[in-house]
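Question (not urgent): is this output format expected?
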Amino acid sequence: MQKGLLCALLFLPAVLAANPAWAQITVLDQAQDAQATPAPAAEPDAPPPPCGTQPLSIASMSWPSAQILAEIHARLLKQAYDCNVQVIPGDLAATGSSMGSTGQPAVAPEMWTTRVAEVWNAGIEAQMLRPASPTYEDGNLEGWFIPDYLATAQPGMTSAASLASELLTLGATKPRFISCPIDWACAVINRNLLTAYGLTDLVELVEPANRFEMDTLIAEAVSKQEPFVFYYWQPNAVLAQFSFASLDMGAYDEAAAQCLAKRECAAPTASAFAPDSVVTALSEWVFTDIPAIAGYFQRTSLPLSEMNTMLAQLGEPGGTVGAVADRFVAERGDIWAAWLGAASP
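Got this back:
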């Protein structure tokens, strides 16, 4: 409705100029002048601003990585395109539903589509929203890791499949496998994967009580330079606070993964963790009405390691989402300059 009203107001001067009564008055006035003054040439219409004339809303979800991304994009859009940006609270299901029905907010920088598949698919089918780009360049968000000093000492330890033979070379040492809390789904998957890879008797399985204990166990093992393997997910600060190498988990097998997720999996077979689709979601009108901004978001995939670093910065004394976003904009032009494309300074 606002767009229609704006168009009507812009059209009003043209209507008045074409009215015969107004045209007659203009002619009479010119005839009374001693010397007619030619009407000034009409200036060409100015190009529309890249962001349009309405505020551009960006959803800031309830977790830190999404909040950091929202603030980074708000700063860059203001700086490069002079956008009027509003960062608003968001939630996966509620934001996806709102974008799919009303077209607002305009942007959700970290939309985990597989976790709200029904809502996401409905918005896609209604042609109200669509992905602009993967939020992160890396696709492996869950997996197994080893500390860098173990990777250096055991150069053949590059994959989950190589662990059995490589661990045997450690001699009497039985390394720990630090899994996730026992009531998490990943704990079941890790137990079955250890069986699938023949590792049950080669490692000491540790299932912490909570996320805090999990991080503490990892930090203590690193400080003691222990050989150990652990499960983790990204983006996450822990993977930036210490130096780790990820293990190749092989290909994803849907049938195998379904069995791995069951407490009673009769014959566990190796598979990578199920992939998660994480995208920068845009309401459809962004593509049609402000294509320069859609183009910006189509270039904004970020390395996971960079987000891990920013999450680690958030945990430093005085760290805030805004301060981390400011630091990224100030220091990482090597990354975000490519996002701006033609608008790059």
